[in-house]
Design brief:
By secondary structure, the chain is α+β, with helices and mostly antiparallel strands. Helices cover 28% and strands 14% of the residues. Among the domains are: 27 residues, no CATH class; 41 residues, Orthogonal Bundle (Arc Repressor Mutant, subunit A); 75 residues, 2-Layer Sandwich (Alpha-Beta Plaits), CATH 3.30.70.
């Protein structure tokens, strides 16, 4: 039997000369081919990137993530007790009370109110009104702004960019017919050149809570 450095060929078809050459040939360990080309640098395995969250919360100045959790909870239930609110955000009632008072002082919380059913109170109708002023000067706009703030029939009013100057939202009594003229208080607003109203037939969504 040959040594470990010899290659033994068992085939009968090999000639004696080839057999003698093969016996004298040192055994060569087979090396697998490289997995990449020599002229190309090897690519290092990198970990998969972490998934990016769908919503990135930007913390406002003066508030942290616990404050945001408190604000979300108070939006959902403004009458929650400090004991229960502390359990929601994992703070003691005293600590959460101090945070709520600070959020009130800093203007994050503007107030607390009850949401009423307008239909049960006889004011289920809604109308949006485009308003164009006779003159878009500072004096005319200021008089209109003061009158709108004092008008109880106006729910919202915004100075907008576009074809009109203001966009208002008002409530109408249930017995109000959409084809009827606008309420007298709205007609009496000063400096108005034209009004165009749009009565709401069906409200698809009415959400007052902020999303953050």
């Amino acid at each position: 039997m040959g040594t470990a450095a010899q290659l033994i060929i068992e085939s009968e078809a090999v000639s004696p000369a080839a057999r003698q050459t093969a016996v004298r040939t040192p055994h060569l360990r087979r090396v697998p081919p490289p997995s990449h080309r020599v002229d190309e640098p090897a690519v290092e395995a990198r970990p998969a990137p972490l998934p990016v969250p769908a919503t990135v919360v930007r913390l406002p100045a003066g508030a942290d993530r616990i404050d945001l959790r408190i604000l979300r909870t108070l939006q959902r239930c403004g009458r929650i007790s400090y004991q229960k609110l502390g359990e929601e955000v994992h703070l003691s009632p005293t600590a959460v009370f101090e945070r709520v008072k600070r959020l009130e002082r800093e203007g994050f919380i503007l107030g607390y109110e009850a949401r009423l059913d307008a239909a049960k109170l006889g004011s289920g109708g809604t109308m949006y009104i485009e308003v164009r002023l006779e003159r878009a000067c500072i004096g005319a706009m200021q008089r209109f702004n003061d009158a709108v703030r004092a008008c109880p029939d106006v729910m919202e009013c915004h100075l907008v960019a576009g074809d009109c100057d203001y966009l208002m939202k008002i409530r109408l009594a249930d017995d109000h017919v959409m084809d009827d003229p606008l309420p007298a208080s709205i007609r009496a607003l000063p400096g108005v050149r034209e009004m165009r109203g749009f009565g709401v037939k069906t409200g698809l969504k009415q959400e007052r809570s902020l999303s953050f």
